[in-house]
Every structure is written in C-alpha cells, then in structure tokens.
Amino acid sequence: MDPVSVGLLVALAGGAGGEIGRQAWAGLSALVRRPASAAPDGSPTASGEVELRALRDAPADIDRAHALSTALAVRAALDAGFREGLRQWAEEASTAVVVEPGVHNSIHGSTVHGTVIQAGRDVHGLPASAPPPPAL
C-alpha cells in the first residue's frame, strides 16, 4: 500500500473539504483509535494516535503530517486489518479534497549571479532552453 499523501493529511487536518473533509478526518481518527494488534514478534505496535493528535493541533505542520503518514504506513505494514481499513479510508478520503501538487520556488534576499535551476510544472509556450541574455 502506498503511504497516505502528506498533502491530503494536511488538507484534512486543516478543515479542507467542508463536511466531507471533516467526516474523512473523523474516519481516520476512528481507524487510528482502534486497538493495534501486536507486531509479529509480539511487541506492541504504535497506533499513530500521538501523531494524529500532533497534526490536529498544528494542521499546517508538514513535519507532523510526514510523521503521521509514516506511522500509518508502519502500522499498515504490520497489521493486515488496519491496512485494509486504511486502504478503504484513503480511497474515500481522496474524493473529499483535491490536493494540487505544486511547485513553489522563491529566491529572495540576495542577488544571484549565474545559473538558477528551478522546478516547474505545466509550463507552456516557453522554449526548453534559451540563449543567455546579452552581456551588459
């Protein structure tokens, strides 16, 4: 199973998607709160509840969303029942909000002399390469 999208977690924790988004967040919360089964070696499996609460308390914190996504992936790898529940939840939740992948480049606070390479997305009408500007 693919990890749960960090963008989706941030969007839902931040209240995106209106009522459907709130229901999706509540569904994830209920899933995470289910008792976790033991790992194959008998040790307890972390539930992800700590990470869920942390993201709920700071919904724009990408690091907390990454931590929750990782906790969910680890639990899903160790618990087949949780994995199936998470898969179903992710399918339903992905319809609650549209997470636009994006690129946000920023250069500020200095002067750049030389080549700058920036990531881009959906760039139209520009050549792939251009000659350098004339020397001043």
Structural class per helix/strand content? mainly alpha
Average pLDDT figure: 82
Beta fraction:
under 5%
Low-confidence stretches: none
Order of helices and strands: HHHHH
How many β strands by DSSP? 0
Largest sheet: none
The percentage helix is 40-55%
Q: What form results from the Cα inertia axes?
A: elongated
Per DSSP, the total helix count is: 5
Note the gap between the termini: 55 Å
Radius of gyration: 20 Å
Can I get a quick summary?
The chain is mainly alpha-helical and 136 residues long.
3D architecture notes:
By secondary structure, this protein is mainly α. The chain is built from five helices and no strands. The longest helix is centred in the middle third of the chain and has 17 residues, at 62-78. It starts with 5 loop residues before the first helix and ends in a 43-residue tail after the last helix. The model has no long low-confidence stretch (mean pLDDT 82).
Could you outline the blueprint of secondary structure elements for this entry?
Blueprint: H1 6-13, H2 18-33, H3 49-57, H4 62-78, H5 80-93
Helix pairs in contact: 1-2, 1-4, 2-5, 3-4, 4-5
Descriptive terms for the model:
136 residues; mainly alpha; 5 helices; 47% helix
